[in-house]
Amino acid sequence: MKTIGLVIATQEEFDAAARLLYAIEGNLDVSHSFQAEFEFIILKDYDKGLTIVAAHSHFGEISAAANTQFLISEFKADLIINYGVAGAMVDGIDVGEVFVVSHIFHYDFNLIDTDHHYPRGYYPSYGTQYLRPSVELLSEVASIIPGIQRVTCMSSDSFIGEYRKRDLSKETNAQICEMECAGVCLTCQKNAIPCLILKSISDAVDEGAEAFNENVVSASDICAEILLKIIYNLKIT
After folding, report:
1. What integer pLDDT is reported at residue 124 of this predicted model?
2. From CA 150, how far away is CA 175, in angstroms rounded?
3. Angle at Cα 39 formed by Cα 33 and Cα 44, nearest 5°?
4. What is the pLDDT of residues 210-230, one digit of tens each?
5. What is the CATH number of domain 2-231?
6. How far, in Å, CA of 174 to CA of 103, rounded?
7. CA 93 to chain CA mean position, Å
8. Above pLDDT 90, what percent of the chain?
9. CB atoms inside a 10 Å sphere around CB 164
10. Phi/psi of residue 234, each to 5°?
11. Distance (Å) of CA 164 to CA 3, 159, 167, 207, 210
12. Is 92 exposed, middle or buried (0-12, 13-18, 19+ CB in 10 A)?
C-alpha cells in the first residue's frame, strides 16, 4: 500500500482536506489522531491500495519541514504534497485560481555576507537560487488537470502584505508567495522523496491579510478538490 503525506499549514486548509477525505466512499478506514504536536487524518483506501495522511503543520518553514520529516519517518510516505493557499505577487492572477509550483525561491536563505557572497536564496549544494519539486510529478499533473499553470513561488517565514508583493516579485521572479514550501521541498530532497506543491490564491497582488482571512476557506476548498483528483490519478496509486 502506497502512502501519500499531505503537509497542510492552516486550520482552514486542514478542515477542507478533512471534509473531502471523510466524504470518500468505498472499502476504507478513516481515523483522526494527534501525535507529537501534529494533528492527523489517516485514510486507508483498500480498493486503491492507498494511504493518505493529512497532517496539520501550522505556519512556517520549520514547522512544515518537521511535519514533512515526521510523515517520511513515521508514516513511511512515498510522496509528499504541500497543498494550500498563497498570495499573488503579480497582476493577472485571481483569487481562487490554482497553480502547481515548478520553482521555489527561499527568500530567508541568504549567504550574501559569506566569503563567497552568494546571492539571496542561493543554495551552494544545489547550485541554484531555485529549488525544484519533482519534474515527473509536474508532468503527471499537467495530464490530470489540463491547462493548470506552473509558477515560481517565493517561500518565506513572513506573511507578505500588499505593499511588498510587487517589489519582491521583481527581486525573486516569483508570481506567488507563501510560508511553507521551501521547508517541504528541502526535506523531501534530503530524503530522496518526490514532492508536489499545489496552491490556490487567497489574496490578489494588491491585497493582504484582510483578503486572506476572507478567502482562505473558499480557496482551500477549491484547492482540496483539485488535490483529491490529482491524488487518485497519480501513477503512484
Report:
1. 86
2. 10
3. 55
4. 999 999 999 999 999 999 999
5. 3.40.50.1580
6. 9
7. 18
8. 76
9. 15
10. -70, 150
11. 38, 10, 6, 10, 15
12. exposed
Of the candidates 187, 218, 201, the residue with the CA atom closest to the CA atom of residue 5: 187
Over the range 9-29, which residues count as b (16 or more CB within 10 Å of their CB) and which as e? Answer: bbebbbbbbbebbeeeeeebe
CA 8 from chain center: how many Å?
7
Which three cell numbers mark 65? 519541514
- Predicted pLDDT of residue 236: 66
The alpha-helical segments, DSSP class H, found in the chain are 11-23, 61-74, 135-144, 165-172, 181-191, 209-231
What is the phi/psi pair of residue 214, to 5°? -70, -35
**According to the model, what pLDDT value does residue 223 have?**
96
- Find the length of the chain: 237
The candidate with the shortest Cα–Cα distance to 213, out of 222, 199, 224, 203, is: 203
